[in-house]
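Sequence only, no structure available. Ideas?
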Amino acid sequence: QLQLVESGGGLVQPGGSLRLSCEASGYALEYDAMGWFRQAPGKERERVACISVGDGSRTYADSVEGRFTITRDNAKRKVYLQMDSVSPEDTAVYYCGAHKEFFRLCIISDLENAYWGQGTQVTVSS
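Reply:
I predicted one. Tokens follow.
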């Protein structure tokens, strides 16, 4: 079983920056994709950014393209989300996810068959 633990959430002012971290531990046969998803009150969970553990391929939601950057450190089994120029619309609980297949997590957002962390709250407000 794979465990994911997020950290780095908090309160940030509009236009500011925040960096989220996710660390994987435990055993899983294999997983090729890790990503960040978010869920605001009353809304469905949506994909924010996703990365292949193997070749580093990335996908981003249109709403964060150019503002957020996802990176990975395979040696530490960590993935990061650098959030810049944040706006109140970015307020949500951010979840780290992992999946065996890049396509299923990062292209079609197969949420049911992914591993998930407990989430970290990000609030953008002045």
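The first helix runs from residue 102 to 107.
Hope that gets you unstuck.
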